[in-house]
Amino acid sequence: MSKSLPGRAEQHNDVAALAVLWLVGACLRLTILAVPPLMPLLHATLGLNEGQVGLLSSLPSLMFALAAIPGAFLVARWGIGATLLIGLALNAAASAARGMVPQVDFLYATTALMAAGVAVTQPALPPLVRNRFPRRIGFATAVYTNGLLVGEILAASLTQPLVLPMVGGHWRGAVAVWALPVLLTAALVLVFGRHLVPGGRPAANARQWIPDWKHPLIWRLGFLLGGVNAMYFVANAFLPDFATAAGHPELIESALTALNLAQLPASFLMLALAGRLATSRWAYVATASVSLLSVLGIIVSRGEGMVVWCAVLGFSNSITLILAFALPSLLCAPADVPRTSAGMFTISYGWAMAVSIFSGQLWDWTRSSLSGIAPLALCAVITALLACTLRLGGHVAQGEAAPAASARAD
């Protein structure tokens, strides 16, 4: 009986840690995806033009790229738990502050700070998974990614029908409401910190936070994840105009819903399969290949077939996303996970923004709707090719990334 108590307590600690990890994942998108449903109100109250809407929409991705490396610095300097608290607190405070001053510039500034809070949180999650669940990296990564995807769906789907009526139809109150679960999650991290982050930080020198840009692994991971992100962001941005140009404007809502909702069953499936698939190179190649096939299907389909292929793209791309999130934890020594993750996020979001801008410019230059979607096929090909270069095995790899002892610290 006495021997079973420690095992049972350890199981309870694991469940608590996974629950908080899921909530942290949800907080990565809750406050960001709450804004698109509020755009009509922002138009009306602040008089935003389309250029201002575009800037407001692109700020999170920009900050994801710019603030990821400071996140690695915080992990190296103060540890994983403190970094999570800083990121979540900044996210909640800036989100709640977005509606306090009725000026567009203040909205831009607080949105950037909110996204910076998300950005510094993201590089803390792979080392947390690597330290807390070293034998279940794929599963733990799937847990927080499932939270991320559920957070996207909850914020996008509940803001208008549920949250706005609660606050009298005022967008300022709505953005403040979505800050509450982030603040609650920060409190849970504080309470369960010793169960969530044993030891507090990876065994790293406090100066060892700058990514080793000379190491090819960071670039391979960055462009691999960047291709996944680009396929998601560009598809959401250009599908409405593509469907309209194809003569099917009535399919816009169905296509976007299929693209985004199909991520959810994929994320639940990966809770069962990520542990096995994360160390299998063929899984990355296969899902990227299915994404390529789905992009081609969207291009050539007419009518309802477009919606079906959008669902296939959302499903396959989200699987690749979950697998890609696990790669720094699988391929790096513990001390290198934060900075490798930060470098991966910096490159990936920068690449995704570049592909989005290029797709729009290509459409304008060629005046062909095909030009807005075709770059997604190239992203899928690049992702599959880069996956072929990864050295994955049945166990966690320790040596592909530059080892901590020989890595540059400044």
Core attributes:
single chain; 410 residues; mainly alpha; Growth Hormone, Chain: A; 19 helices; 76% helix; disordered N terminus
Task: Please write out the topology.
Layout lengths: L3 H24 L2 H4 L5 H8 L3 H17 L1 H11 L1 H18 L6 H18 L3 H8 L4 H30 L4 H7 L1 H13 L1 H4 L19 H30 L6 H10 L1 H15 L3 H20 L4 H27 L5 H30 L3 H19 L22
Largest sheet, if any? Answer: none
**What low-confidence regions span 5 or more consecutive residues with pLDDT below 50?**
1-5, 200-204, 394-410
Helix content: over 70%
CATH topology name of the largest domain, in short, is Growth Hormone, Chain: A
Total count of domains: 2
What would you report as the Rg, rounded to the nearest angstrom? 21 Å
Q: List SSEs in N-to-C order.
A: HHHHHHHHHHHHHHHHHHH
CATH superfamily of the largest domain: MFS general substrate transporter like domains
Give the structural class. mainly alpha
Share in β-strands: under 5%
How many individual β-strands?
0
* Overall CATH architecture of the largest domain: Up-down Bundle
Residue-averaged pLDDT, rounded? 86
Helix tally?
Answer: 19
Per CATH, the class of the largest domain reads: Mainly Alpha
What is the 3D form? globular
Distance between the termini: 52 Å
